[in-house]
Amino acid sequence: MEIFKNTNFDFLGKKWPFIIASLILTAAGLISLVVKGGPRYGIDFNGGTATSVAFGSDPNEEEIRKVLSEKIPGEIVVQKIQGQNEVMIGTEVQNEKQLESAREAIYSSLAGKYGAPGGKLDINNAGQLAVLDKIRDGLSRGNPNLSEQQMQDLVKAILAYRDSHHGIISSFDSLSSVPGVTPQVIGVLKNELGASQYNIRHFDLVGPKVGGELRTQALTATLLALAGMLIYVALRFELLYGAAAVIAVFHDTIITIGLFSIFNKQIDLPVIAALLTLVGFSMNDTIVVFDRIRENLKLMRKESLYNIINTSINQTLSRTILTSGLTLLTALSLFLFGGPVLHGFSFALVFGILVGTYSSIFIASPILVAWQEWAAKRNEKNGGAGGTLKAASK
Fold first, then answer.
1. Domain that holds residue 27
2. Quick one: which of 159, 202, 165, 210 has its CA closest to 180?
3. By the number of CB atoms within 10 A of the CB, which of 113, 227, 296, 384 ranks highest?
4. What is the sign, positive or negative, of the torsion defined by CA atoms of 299, 305, 310, 316?
5. In the listed set 93, 114, 135, which residue is the last one of a domain according to the structure?
6. Could you tell me if residue 129 is inside a domain?
7. Are residues 55 and 189 in the same domain?
């Protein structure tokens, strides 16, 4: 499928606005990184806690942050998940010893503000065994005709109902639709347990030492990916092609990381996954253009390298628009509707795809022309016969 047929745009002639824009973005990003002392790493790399908490009603982020700050020092991040009564709570820790204390502080702070009244066991945050003990004790006083297995099945059914309602049982009376829950059971639940306004969905923690190791591994993985791409393109084409492609991909990565710093966004493991995805995506886009250039070098021997590259870009334009455009739409969907968990990942993809698409046209390709012009001048000065890729150049 071709969107554009027989186009003849002078892409190389319009390269300078994009090159200048790249220089500005790169400089702005690097300045931001220097001023802020480097990237803002997330919990994955710095160490800390990440807690997902669901609420029975629309949560007040500022109130939650205030409650937690009374017991937890340092920065506390509270982000509401779009379209749900749920928040992500992130805290930083300075050493391994603070991990458990941070967890206890989060649990106690939430329980103190939003916990079950009367100090009763909270059915919305209790485990199966604790709930089973309470129900067993309560029912034993009423001489129920339930075996141990039946009571276990009853508790499983109640907790399954809780989990299907985002972890929140707002009223014990709502359990009347659960199989096995009789008025007697509801009475026991009201006497023995309480229902809080929140449910801790999951809790993750990463020690600072482990975070540092992950940071080193992420940097190594990115550099190895770039080195592998350089070797691959150099073997498939020429070393110059590989160098141009890697420079373009490195350009994409630096600008994307700079944007994270400018917009004060965290870099965590999903973001590294997005950056590695962009390395492959941008490299693939560049290789498609380079492959067409290589073919046209044989078919258009009398043309200048300038015209050959322009022709090659025009010939692959439909493929570039279709591939990049559809991928961008998917990334935009994640960015708009994926929630805070995927926000960093989708942010990197959206801007990385935009930068990576134009870099394969306006950064990587002009490098070939610039090298050709330099090689032609050098060979002319030395009495040689032009550049390696193409003798003529515009």
1. 12-41+207-381
2. 159
3. 296
4. positive
5. 114
6. yes
7. no
Name residues whose C-beta falls within 8 Å of residue 373's C-beta, 6 or more positions apart in sequence: 387, 393
Task: Identify each DSSP E strand in 190-244 by its residue range.
Answer: 193-194, 198-206
pLDDT in single tens digits along all 394 residues of the chain: 556 677 888 888 888 999 999 999 999 999 999 999 888 887 777 777 888 899 988 888 889 988 888 888 777 888 887 778 888 888 876 666 666 788 888 888 898 888 888 778 999 998 999 989 988 888 877 666 778 888 899 999 999 999 888 889 988 999 988 988 888 888 888 888 998 989 998 887 776 666 677 778 888 887 888 788 778 777 777 778 888 888 888 899 899 999 999 998 888 888 888 888 888 888 888 888 888 888 888 888 888 888 989 999 999 888 888 888 899 999 999 888 877 668 889 999 999 999 988 888 888 888 888 888 887 788 777 765 545 554 333 4
268 in the same domain as 137: no
Please tell me the pTM assigned to this model. 0.68
How many domains, in total, are found in the chain?
3
Q: Pick the last residue of a domain from 196, 227, 245.
A: 196
Q: Are 229 and 94 found together in one domain? A: no
